[in-house]
Amino acid sequence: MSDQESSTSASQTEGEFEGEMEGDEELEEGQRDSAPCLSSTLRAVIRIKQKYQALKRRREEMALGLGGAGTLTGAPGRTSPKIFTFDGVTPSSAVPQKKKRRRRRRVMFPNGTRQRAPPKQERSRAKYCLYLLFAIVFLQVYNAIENLDDHVLRYDLEGLEKTLRREVFGQQGAVEEMLSHLQDYLSTYVHNKPLVVSVHGPSGVGKSHMGRLLAGHFRSVVGESLVLQYYVLHHCPQEADALQCAHNLSTLISQMVVRAEEEEKIPLFIFDEAEHMHEEILDELWQLVTSKKSNEYLNAIYLFLSNLGHAHITKHMLHNSSSSSMALTASRRHSNLVKELTPILHNTLEKLHPLWTEVDILPLGLLEKGHVMECFLDEMTREGFYPDHTNIERLAGEIEYYPSVGGHEYSQMGCKQVVAKVNLL
After folding, report:
1. Are 395 and 376 in contact (CB under 8 A)?
2. CB 210 within 8 A of CB 197
3. For 402, which DSSP code?
């Protein structure tokens, strides 16, 4: 706004104010004429009040007319231009708004009752007993796991493995299978049934020799009194004595298992020439094997050695031998032999007696010419002969063999004649 405009508006304001004052004087004169009886003091108060109201009304009108500038009458106008800035402006969105607190609902109680706090729940003491039970079970399981190796070490299965691999020829797969059964069974002292293994094979393949090695090893680790070698043709040759032999055998086994339970050991019972066992002896052994009357009868190892089913083993090996099978390892060949012969042998033996339904069958295969030569070498070394390779080949050539099949030359009698021929040297 220019200086000329400011002076013009100021002169207009002064004129209006003078006119207003003149109007007030005229009004006062009129009132003076109309009310001659009023005192001079009262008239002065009324005049001052009217002037104040007129001045206040004029200021409000001026404020509205000048756009709310709010300048007093007669005040000098502002010559500097107005500049709009955002300094004094505060956006409404930036003003923090107080979050309304949600009022909690009041709990209404029935009339005539007092407000009571919820009862404090007592901690159950059974919780601590449960924690204690968990700790005890954990310690027992941990202790049992730690004692597994200690229990197996007592029977020295590593030494047994070395002995069997060194002394038993041509049956490495069967040796591994036997050690696997013993490892699983001897790893703990708690069982739900005894370990019953039945070794089958033709004559001279090493059944009795394996039994003697097992008996000697267990005598060294559990004691002489907990190992029994029972030869049927020696201990009970007469069939008329079968019932008494069965009773005596049952009494002897009961005494041994009770003694083994007291010493926390597992006894070993070996029955050689099991194909000659009488019916009464088989019945008594079946009762002992399936007995559930006490725990000591469950912690025992029964080993049966027989040539039952040898015809099936011989036929299978002669008809299934080929040049391709030579590339397989001994354990792989024996695994195939067990897989294919086990159902056949089970069907054959179950018809003879129920005892054979409780056994784990372990077949032994035929021995080749190379295995027979190893038998001669071992026996000649034991007897103090010089192990001449030429002499060994000559002796091995005197043994009878089946016709060569797929590059394999199997012995008909295994190593059964080796001892007799070495004694003739």
Report:
1. yes
2. no
3. P
